[in-house]
Amino acid sequence: MTNSSFDALIIGGGPAGCSCALWLKHLGLKPLIIEKSDRLGGLQNESPYPNIWILGQSYRNGRAFAASVEKQIKVEKIATQFRAQVESLSFSQANQKFVANLSGFKKSKTLEASFIVLATGVKPRTGGLTPSPEVLIGPGDHIETASYRGKRVAILGGGDNAFENYQFIKKKKPKSIKIFARNVRAQFSFVKKVKSGDLRVGQYDVDIDGKKVNGEVFDSIVVMYGWQGVNALEGIVSLNMRNGFVETDYLRRTSHENIYAIGEVSQSAHPCCVTAMADGIIAAKDIQTRIDQVRVAQQLKLK
């Protein structure tokens, strides 16, 4: 027996999941956001940087943007379950609904929904390295709060994050700073700001125990190897994956009937808050269309 029934269970309360929930609500449907932490906003909660790329939000940093997202979801009275994760998931052919059991409670909580939306975002790729005070992996608060003054810093990676953080760390007055990139993928505007001699392109070796890159000793090693999707349904439901991300079609439908993947977990063409929120809209509209088709058919039978 289920405790509650929803049109869609949205796993993940970042910009993608909250956007999807907001649109579903205003389309007349009943969503529930399932968030494993105690707050909404996703990785924006870990970002101290201004959102200069989000129209109308340039005066807010990531944390402020996340707070505004949570406030709007609360004002809209959209159902949210914090500190919870999907423990098991099955599909009833009889009523064409999913039955999900959530962990994080004294007793397992059971919910019912017509659709599942996976919006669990990404986590930094580690390259097999273990984070420590000397090995910092991925962008975020830990990069901002670390001390670099007078230190020798190595940045590993060739994407935008590596080159952006080069500029940020350089302002902290390190003794030296070098980027090691097997290939450069960053945009030209970032690359051209790197001081001559601070960029090494090609293969390199990392000795974490000795804190060495290509035999050169560093005090801090900053790892910017990009991202991989966080598939919260791994081991529960089989979904087609590609390069560490959930594979979807243009409507954000996955290989499993009635399951969607939106935002960075599905590797958008250009992953960011704006495209993540757009993914939420695309999925919400498709869910509304499919539900309405069933309702219209049922209504016509009554006439």
Explain this structure.
It is elongated, with a radius of gyration of 22 Å. It contains six helices and 19 strands. The strands form five sheets. Strands 1, 2, 3, 4, 5, 6 and 19 form a seven-stranded mixed β-sheet that branches. It has a five-stranded parallel β-sheet with strand order 8-15-9-10-11, covered by helices on one side. Helix content is 25%, strand content 27%. It has 303 residues and is α/β, with parallel strands linked by helices. The longest helix has 30 residues, at 273-302. The protein starts with a strand and ends with a helix.
Itemize the secondary structure elements and their pairings.
Blueprint: E1 4-11, H1 15-26, E2 31-35, H2 62-75, E3 79-82, E4 85-92, E5 97-103, E6 109-118, E7 122-124, E8 135-137, H3 141-145, E9 152-156, H4 160-170, E10 176-181, H5 188-191, E11 199-201, E12 206-207, E13 212-213, E14 216-217, E15 220-223, E16 227-229, E17 241-242, E18 245-246, E19 259-261, H6 273-302
Parallel strand pairs: 1-2, 1-6, 2-3, 6-19, 8-15, 9-10, 9-15, 10-11
Antiparallel strand pairs: 4-5, 5-6, 7-16, 12-13, 13-14, 17-18
Helix pairs in contact: 1-2, 1-6
Keywords summarizing the entry:
6 helices; 303 residues; 7-stranded mixed beta sheet; alpha/beta; 25% helix; FAD/NAD(P)-binding domain; 5-stranded parallel beta sheet
Instruction: Give the ordered list of helices and strands.
Output: EHEHEEEEEEHEHEHEEEEEEEEEH
Average per-residue pLDDT, rounded, comes to 92
Helicity, as a percent range: 25-40%
Structural class: alpha/beta
> In the CATH hierarchy, what is the class of the largest domain?
Alpha Beta
Radius of gyration over all CA atoms, rounded: 22 Å
Tally of domains = 2
Count of distinct strands? 19
